[in-house]
Amino acid sequence: MNHIAIVEDDNSIAEMLSFHMKAQGYQVTHFADGEVARQNLLRESYDIVLLDIMLPNCNGLDICKELRQKNPSIPILMLTSLDGEADRVIGLELGADDYLTKPFSMRECTARVKALLRRSQLAAPVEEAIESVDEKLSIDELNLDAGSRVVCMNEVLIELTAREFDLLFYLAKNAGRVYSRSQLLDAVWGYSHDGYEHTINTHINRLRNKLKRSNGKSEFIQTVWGVGYKFYRPDEDGS
Fold first, then answer.
1. Range of the domain at 67
2. With a threshold of 0.85, does the pTM exceed it?
3. Which of 93, 118, 135, 164 could, after both became Cys, cross-link 146 (CB 3.0–4.6 A)?
4. In terms of domains, do 92 and 160 share one?
5. CATH of residue 31
6. The dihedral sign for the CA sequence 83, 106, 191, 185
7. For the OmpR/PhoB-type domain, which residue ranges apply (predicted)?
């Protein structure tokens, strides 16, 4: 049984989330205080965290950053206010996998939770990107192993979130092909995100920071202006 941590100080929202998550068969633990949640999340093990930003005693963004440093693979779904655009972007940059804007439907929330859990548990890897859980890719100094979800560059382990790995593997497997943000959202996130294209931007930026090259070659993930992104092919360098 998956164990969900709900960190939300609005009791009506927390009760609604708890009711629907329990109805899906999940075990639920609720925290209304930010500092209490922070200490517990760093100490105990959960399968996914639904994390509000505005919390008493400890900001949800600070919790996200600290939790991501301790546990790179745990799925984090941020809960944000309608006018909290900056907070949503910061949350994604700090390592959140996805976000929901209040007010949100329980149907959409449940879909997001299920999608995040599937990817973190490898029950359903990205279908178009990973045909076999044993598949491996090697491009220049970058090596990806779908079975172990391990990424190494120059034999140094690169820690990625589950969503970052899926996005990187999808692009790398289809190196040279250009994808729009909406195509990447559909393929990697598994459902439409109308107006959520900047989710891709923040994940791409995080991947680029983690995969910086020291040999002066082009970045692994390249921007195609007006279209989207692609993963470079070695022959594009003329090498």
1. 3-121
2. no
3. 135
4. no
5. 3.40.50.2300
6. positive
7. 134-233
